[in-house]
């Protein structure tokens, strides 16, 4: 009897020791986990503060956005699904503003020469893809005889690739760039519906064609050739409507 | 309220840590399939994490939710359509995991993994839409809130969509720890006392 009771007591003691060991192991695990988590959070805070101290990249000018004066009748909003485009044949409104780079006056108005007005947003990846292609075409002389003006619109300092002045200088954009207002006055006056937005203008100041989205090199060449020749423009944008 | 830049760098570090954990878990899982020793190590680690994994997953979901609200309500980053879908999946996890933790419900992984299985691929798709032109339905940017345009991109790949995916995957790994670990973890009961 005593042996049986002894065995029972030993088993209970063994069970208690095992439970204590398991509890101790759990405490150690818990400590290691929460300690590790605390270290991660502290490191994240330190890295965040240190990495944010330097100030990144380019400085914005004082003209990333600026008031734009509009004179004339606004163009209807561009809708690629509508054919023919109701904006074609309408006279472009005159825009008066300043350069995003240096604040010097920039105007878009009928000049007696063919024109291309390009609306770009610094954060738009399609604009970021299209602009260098247009810069290459400019180097090849494709724009010779055409007055080109870009309008930096949709500008938002919270978004990437800000400021637009630094971006366009970095890619060596060779033409004047007008800063649109924070209310996107110029873009609205020209009926912008998506970025990038092309408006081709005849020498008499009427709209020859409009398009949104990326346009291929061959397409741009064909469109400009037709614009210069005064023939029908085969312009078709890489995209019709906007994403989501 | 901290600035957007500091906050983003803070979340960047957390995202990288989450990614590291997910990668290690993946490698360990593969190793466990071929090596009994690795399997034992994985089970042992999961058993150590399991008692805390629901709480840890709740913290991940809560941080992701608060981060999402910070960006939309404080930083002014208007969520796009795909962002909204991810929010719809992530936000309830705060409740689901919170309740599971309070109830010590180790079966909650069954519900949570459903959210993870929906949320992680959704975030991956959004990340691809942002980066791969073939995934975007258009070659233009909407004037409203395009899904194709990330508000920021860190280290060349970390965007809000990537952060969300990392959060979902980390929650998934923690839930798998619950599954593996809770099966392995039992208070030690000497066999000869069972009859007594």
The number of helices of chain B is: 5
Low-confidence regions of chain A: 238-244
Strand content of chain A: 15-25%
Helix content of chain A: 25-40%
**Order of secondary-structure elements of chain B:** HHHHEH
Inertia-based shape of chain B: globular
What oligomeric state do the depicted chains represent? heterodimer
Low-pLDDT regions of chain B: 187-196
Give the fraction of residues assigned to helices of chain B.
over 70%
Shape descriptor of chain A reads elongated
Distance between the termini of chain A: 82 Å
Cross-sheet strand order for the largest sheet of chain A:
6-5-4-8-9
Considering the chains and any ligands shown, give keywords for the structure.
heterodimer; A: 244 residues; alpha/beta; 5-stranded mixed β-sheet; 3-stranded antiparallel β-sheet; 9 strands; disordered C terminus; B: 196 residues; mainly alpha; 1% strand
What does the model show?
The complex is a heterodimer of chains A (244) and B (196). By secondary structure, chain A is α/β, with parallel strands linked by helices. A 5-stranded mixed β-sheet of chain A has the order 6-5-4-8-9, covered by helices on one side. Chain A has a 3-stranded antiparallel β-sheet with strand order 1-2-3. In chain A, helix 3 links the parallel strand 5 and strand 6. By secondary structure, chain B is mainly α. Chain B has 5 helices and 1 strand; from the N terminus they run H-H-H-H-E-H. In chain B, helix 1 packs antiparallel against helix 2, helix 2 runs antiparallel to helix 5 and helix 4 packs antiparallel against helix 5. The longest helix of chain B has 39 residues. Chain B starts with a helix and ends in a 12-residue tail after the last helix. The relative contact order of chain B is 0.17. The C terminus of chain B is likely disordered. Classes of the chains: A alpha/beta (244), B mainly alpha (196).
């Amino acid at each position: 009897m005593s042996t049986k009771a002894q065995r029972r007591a030993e088993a209970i003691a063994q069970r208690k020791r095992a439970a204590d060991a398991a509890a101790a192991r759990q405490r150690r695990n818990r400590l290691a986990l929460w300690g590790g988590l605390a270290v991660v959070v502290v490191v994240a805070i330190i890295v965040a503060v240190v990495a944010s101290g330097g100030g990144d990249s380019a400085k914005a000018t004082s003209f990333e956005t600026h008031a734009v004066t509009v004179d004339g009748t606004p163009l209807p909003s561009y809708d690629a699904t509508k054919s023919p485009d109701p904006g074609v044949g309408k006279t472009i409104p005159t825009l008066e503003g300043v350069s995003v780079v240096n604040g010097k006056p920039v105007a878009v108005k009928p000049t007696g020469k063919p024109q291309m007005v390009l609306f770009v947003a610094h954060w738009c990846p399609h604009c970021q893809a299209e602009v260098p292609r247009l810069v290459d075409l400019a180097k090849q002389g494709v724009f010779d005889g055409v007055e080109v003006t870009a309008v930096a619109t949709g500008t938002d300092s919270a978004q990437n690739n800000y400021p637009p002045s630094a971006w366009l200088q970095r890619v060596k954009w060779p033409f004047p760039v007008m800063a649109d207002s924070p209310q996107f006055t110029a873009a609205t006056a020209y009926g912008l519906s998506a970025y990038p937005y092309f408006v081709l203008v005849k020498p008499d100041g009427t709209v020859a064609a409009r398009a949104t989205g990326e346009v291929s090199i061959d397409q741009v060449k064909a469109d400009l050739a037709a614009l210069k020749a005064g023939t029908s423009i085969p312009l078709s944008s890489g995209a019709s409507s906007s994403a989501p | 309220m901290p600035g957007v830049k500091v906050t983003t760098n803070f979340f960047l570090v957390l995202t990288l840590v989450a990614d590291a954990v997910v990668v290690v878990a993946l490698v360990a899982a593969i190793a466990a399939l071929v090596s009994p020793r690795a399997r034992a190590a994985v089970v042992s680690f999961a058993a150590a994490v399991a008692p805390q994994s629901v709480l840890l997953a709740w913290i991940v979901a809560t941080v992701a939710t608060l981060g999402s609200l910070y960006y939309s309500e404080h930083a002014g980053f208007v969520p796009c359509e795909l962002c909204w879908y991810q929010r719809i999946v992530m936000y309830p996890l705060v409740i689901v995991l919170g309740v599971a933790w309070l109830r010590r419900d180790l079966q909650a992984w069954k519900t949570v993994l459903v959210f993870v299985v929906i949320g992680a691929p959704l975030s991956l798709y959004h990340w691809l839409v942002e980066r791969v032109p073939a995934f975007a339905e258009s070659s233009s940017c909407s004037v409203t809130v395009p899904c194709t345009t990330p508000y920021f991109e860190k280290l060349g790949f970390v965007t809000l969509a990537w952060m969300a995916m990392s959060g979902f995957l980390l929650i998934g790994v923690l839930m798998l720890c619950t599954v593996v670990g809770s099966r392995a973890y039992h208070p030690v009961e000497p066999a000869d006392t069972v009859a007594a």
